[in-house]
Amino acid sequence: MSEGPVATIIRAKLTDGLSPQRLEVEDDSWRHAGHHHEGGMDAKPGGESHFNLVIVSVAFQGQSRLARQRAVNALLKDEMAGPVHALSIKALTPEEAGETA
């Protein structure tokens, strides 16, 4: 299944800003059908307003969980002000993810 325009933007910004070793961008909007923030950029029911992210990057070395969340949110500030209503962020170092850098 192809990514929508918001997911594509999220992937590009996180790739440019964090050079992740692994990046998973899951559109979880379908689980929020009927929610008043439903629709995202395309204003389509079930589309691009809620995302689950898994990011594995050496950029997170030495950062607290809060600092990692802030780094992701800073990169996606425009999306969070617009089409994206909620992000679930799992930000890990390669060591924490059991991967080599």
TrEMBL record:
Endpoints of the signal sequence: none
InterPro entries with a match to the protein in the record: BolA, BolA-like_sf
Gene Ontology biological process terms, A to Z: iron-sulfur cluster assembly
Family: Belongs to the BolA/IbaG family.
Protein name according to UniProt: BolA family transcriptional regulator
UniProt source species: Brevundimonas intermedia
